[in-house]
Structures are given as C-alpha cells and as structure tokens.
User: Which sequence fits this backbone?
C-alpha cells in the first residue's frame, strides 16, 4: 500500500456558538491542513497521484477559507469546529480531484491543526 500526504494552511477567525469557555469568543487560528491519500497501484508515471494536482486542490479550498470569519459560512452551522472544517475539506477534495472518485485511490484522512498540539481528523467512509 502506498500513501502520500500534502499540506496547506490558512488563517481564519471563528467562535463556537454552543460552547461554554473562552472559545465562545471570536478568535483566530493559523490552521495547518494535511490530506492523506492511499492506494495499492501506481500510475504509468510511477505515482499514486500527482502531488501537484492534490496540493493544488487542497490549496484552492484553503484559499477560499483564508482570512474569513468561518461563522459567516452557513455550511458550518454556526459552529466551525476543527472537526467540521476537516469534513468540509475532505468533501471538497472528493468533489475536485477526479482520481479520488476511483476505487483504486482513497482519501484516507484530512487533518486540521488549530495549533501545533490540537488536531481534528476526518476519515471519509
């Protein structure tokens, strides 16, 4: 089994509406995002998936989130937790990278780090 990983980042503000603590106040993070892809077969070029293609899609998604207030995006239901952000990014990657629609290559996980020590992971079905 082969696995590749690409990374991107974005800076955004958010607050957690149904949270009792300091994170209920507007604050920001410099998010770091990792996308993990695996598969057992390589393409004609000897690659699982072109890094440039996967990284480009991930960076495009992160750019759409960059320097925004995530609470303004209805898709997060007013609670843009790291978990919901990870799922959103995974869903968008699955839509945008055609190779991930095949049965040979799988998006294994998307990690979203709010800080160096706090990570949420979403694993698509």
Assistant:
């Amino acid at each position: 089994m082969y696995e590749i990983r690409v990374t991107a980042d974005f800076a955004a503000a958010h607050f957690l509406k149904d949270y009792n603590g300091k994170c209920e106040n507007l604050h920001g993070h410099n998010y770091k995002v990792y996308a993990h892809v695996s598969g057992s077969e390589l393409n004609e070029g000897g690659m699982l998936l072109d890094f440039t293609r996967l990284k480009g899609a991930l960076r495009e998604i992160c750019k759409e989130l960059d320097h925004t207030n995530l609470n303004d995006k209805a898709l997060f239901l007013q609670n843009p937790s790291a978990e919901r952000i990870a799922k959103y990014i995974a869903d968008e990657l699955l839509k945008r990278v055609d190779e991930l629609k095949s049965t040979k290559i799988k998006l294994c996980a998307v990690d979203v780090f709010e800080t160096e020590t706090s990570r949420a992971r979403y694993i698509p079905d």
